[in-house]
Amino acid sequence: MHTIQQDMAPKVYDKVQGAQRKDKTERDRYGSMALKLPVLVRQAGLIQAVTFVETRGKAGHKALLEDLAQVVDGKTAADFLRQCREADLGSYMWLTRQTLSALEWFKRFAQSVLDAKPGQEGET
């Protein structure tokens, strides 16, 4: 039997490893957003934060959102966004907690695997 964190960590690691194979610009955007997104969720709320990432339109940002959706829910980013919008309060709070747990792993692995640093993204 594993904890949620033990189950989540290898899934996130695999996703970040996949991002490492992308071109430098996309990899930097992915890593930079992985560092920023936990703070955005805490400050603005889950749906506002993930909608912000979706509207950025950059490949690295969209890749992170897809990876996050798959880790948290096993769904596509579009399905994850729809679920966030339509969730009742209890489900929304659960999604927020799960997302923040996953984002802590994305942040850690972006720092260790992608060597992501704040402000590294360059052109936003």
Features:
124 residues, mainly alpha, Peroxidase, domain 1, 6 helices
Report what the structure shows.
With 124 residues, the chain is mainly alpha-helical. The chain has a single domain, classed as AF1862-like domain (Peroxidase, domain 1, Orthogonal Bundle), CATH 1.10.520.30. The longest helix is centred in the last third of the chain and has 24 residues. It is globular. It contains 6 helices and no strands. 79% of the residues lie in helices and 0% in strands. The mean pLDDT is 92.
How are the elements arranged and paired?
Blueprint: H1 4-20, H2 24-44, H3 46-56, H4 59-73, H5 77-86, H6 89-112
Distance N to C terminus: 42 Å
**Which shape, going by the Cα principal axes?**
globular
- H/I helix tally: 6
Into which percent range does the helicity of residues fall?
over 70%
**Average predicted local confidence, pLDDT:** 92
* DSSP strand tally: 0
> What is the name of the CATH class?
Mainly Alpha
**How much β-strand is present in the residues?**
under 5%
Q: Radius of gyration from the CA trace?
A: 13 Å
Low-pLDDT parts are none
**Structural class estimated from helices and strands:** mainly alpha
Helix and strand run: HHHHHH
- Main sheet properties: none
